[in-house]
Amino acid sequence: MTLPPTRPADTTPDGASPSINQWKTLDKDLKRIVQLEEAGQFVGRPLISIGVALVFIVVAGVAASLITGGTPNSLVIVAAAAFGAYMAINIGANDVANNMGPAVGANALTLTGALAIAAIFETAGALIAGGDVVSTISGGIVDPASVAEAGIFVWAMMAALIAAAVWLNIATAIGAPVSTTHSIVGGVMGAGIMAAGMSAVNWPVMGQIAASWVISPVLGGVFAALFLAFIKNRLLDAEDKIAAARLWVPLLIGVMAAAFATYLALKGLRKVMEVQLPAAVMIGLAIGVATVFLTRPLVRRQSEGMENRKKSLKKLFGLPLVVSAALLSFAHGANDVANAVGPLAAIVHAVSNGDTAARVAIPLWVMIIGAGGISFGLVLFGPKLIRMVGSEITKLNPMRAYCVALSAAITVIVASGLGLPVSSTHIAVGGIFGVGFYREWQAERRSRALGLIKGKPLPPDERKRRKLVRRAHFLTIGAAWVVTVPATALLSGAVFVALRTFAG
User: Fold this and answer.
1) DSSP conformation letters of 311-370
2) Cα 425 to Cα 481: distance, rounded to the nearest angstrom
3) CA-angle at 428, arms to 273 and 328, nearest 5°
4) CA distance 494 to 497
5) What crossing angle do the helices spanning 471-503 and 424-454 adopt, rounded to 10°?
6) Is 237 helix (H, G, I), strand (E, B) or coil?
7) Distances (CA, A) of 41 to 30, 55, 93, 315, 420
8) What gap in Å lies between CA 300 and CA 298, rounded to an integer?
9) What is the DSSP code (8-state) at residue 392?
10) How many CB atoms lie within 10 A of CB 99?
11) Which long-range contacts (CB under 8 A, 24 or more apart) does 233-237 make?
């Protein structure tokens, strides 16, 4: 009779020692705890962001109270400062994504690096080059004489501020980059209509703004596609790509430097001096030519030892793309922060002086609230829209993202010269769509040529699968652009009625 094999007293039925099994069990338990902690952090992170944003809003209100404590009706200023801070946070969460999204999507910048650069340059643009004076009735939408009574004017500006901020918050939540300026314009229009009637609105100006819904993205998309076509023809399809890069990349960087110098002279130097378009173009040309001569040896040195293939060329566009993102943020801070805090500055003036004015000075503390709010909003809530703009509309690389950035600067210059009202948000996003649709067109040409060679075309399902632009984002963003002005106008009108009813 054969006895079953015996096992040592210090082993389990599977042959392992109790101590080993205990460690395995402990590892499993620890892994579950880690997973629960990660899940808790994922759920709690939005709550932390909301908490920090609320603290900033409260601090803004307290600061306004301390600064204007002796002013009659100072509580109105405190409330306006809180809503102004809320507005600035939403601008940072939504509008700044258009400047940083392409650079992040092209992997020229990490998300953390993009947030840091944007926060620094947005704040610098607002405080260094931000306008001292701002139009209280944004863009001449409403006749100032129609809301000359200080009390009505204050509630109209408060309603516009609240409506624009809420709309930007909604747009960020659904992942739609919209125009800050259009949000303010819609808010002013809605409150103006409820305060003084339809005749108070400057409808020809509103018509121009409606036209910019088409003009801005189309111009941005066409310029971006043309630049990408040029790069493909002169660099990517060249037989000796390195030699072509040494010739053309310095020239392209020079064009970018000229465009941004002109753009900043027009949009970012208003606090220092008023520069007209011809002078701005001459400044841009001088800086562009100097940049070409400076970058030629740098590009030659950087391209030494590179392989003769497309992937190698992407490295040459990384640094120019980072610089362009920083400059766009500076110009945005200089130009758009003043628009954002315009209603707050108007309320402070009306409450402090008891009258209204078509244009008012922006106090430094108001500008600090705007700049600080944008930085907080960008860091706390901006990553979602940065990722969407940078990688979810179409695939970007440094060359494609460079075309988008250059298109944004040149489109603003062209529009300024023609007197066309355009939105920097619409231009940047339009540039991304332009790059994507150009790539689709190129892919379609290749597919047709391949089908002719093989004797059979691609099936419709396969052609649909190869689309390079996400149509869902195209429709969502387009709809949000069209709805922005009427939505903020309706919301602002309702808020104005509520404020007049409950506040008197």
Assistant:
1) HHHGGGGHHHHHHHHHHHHHHHHHHHHHHHHHHHHHHHHHHHHSS--SEEE--HHHHHHH
2) 10
3) 35
4) 5
5) 160
6) coil
7) 16, 20, 21, 36, 47
8) 5
9) I
10) 31
11) 235/313, 236/310, 236/313, 236/399
pLDDT in tens, the chain (504 residues): 555 555 555 555 555 555 555 556 656 655 666 565 555 554 456 678 888 999 999 999 999 888 887 667 788 899 999 999 999 999 888 887 778 888 888 888 888 888 889 888 888 888 777 766 666 666 678 877 777 788 888 899 899 999 999 999 999 988 888 888 889 889 999 999 998 888 888 888 888 888 887 888 899 999 999 999 999 999 888 889 899 999 999 999 999 899 888 877 876 566 566 778 788 889 999 999 999 999 999 999 988 888 888 888 888 888 888 888 888 888 778 777 776 688 888 888 888 877 777 678 788 888 889 888 988 898 889 888 888 888 888 888 889 999 998 898 888 777 777 766 677 788 888 999 999 999 888 887 877 766 655 555 555 555 555 567 887 888 888 888 889 999 999 999 999 999 988 875
Domain map of the chain by residue range? 50-503
For 175, the 3-state DSSP assignment is coil
d(CA 160, CA 196): 14
Read off the pTM: 0.82
Tokens standing for 452?
């002719």
Rounded CA gap, 216 and 212, in Å?
5
Can you spell out the DSSP letters for 184-219?
A: HHHHHHHHHHHHH-GGGB-HHHHHHHHHHHHHHHHH
Crossing angle of helices 18-67 and 364-387, in 10° steps, is: 150
Structure tokens, 397: 């690389």
Specify the amino acid at residue 8. P
Q: Positive or negative CA dihedral for 154, 156, 157, 159?
A: positive
Which of 152, 76, 205, 148 lies closest to 357, judged by CA? 148
